[in-house]
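Hi everyone, sorry if this is the wrong subforum. Our group has a chain we'd like a structural model of before ordering constructs, and none of us has done structure prediction before. Sequence below.
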Amino acid sequence: MNVKKYSIWLALFALILAQLACAVGEPTLENVRTARDEDGAQATSTFGAFDTIYVVSDLSNGVAGNTITSRWFFDNVPGFESGALIDESTIDVTEESFNGTVFFYFPPQTDGWPLGTYKVEVYFNNALNSTVFFTVQ
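Answer:
Right subforum, don't worry. Here is the predicted structure as tokens:
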């Protein structure tokens, strides 16, 4: 009888451990978007010449050592070469465990953003994760 109870408890314990392992999971970066705010609540892909532009994403199960990099490019902006790099920034995760929003921002130049379309590539741990486009009107 005790062997049967022990087997049931062992099976239950193994099931709980398996569920916990699945809950933690691999680090993932998703829901990459352009927005008017650092939380990404005001998502948009159209901005004015004097807007600050945010690229926001959600990091789940992040751990110390994860990196998120954004590379900002001209895409179709009159007077600028398509594909020319504007800026590059990297965020290094330093916490043991991180779940939340990460963001990059780029304020307008003194005379405003040139009108046109821009591209931002977002890399997670040096692998391209997402590409987003935005327009300045």
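For your construct planning: Residues 2-24 form the longest helix (23 residues). The mean pLDDT is 90.
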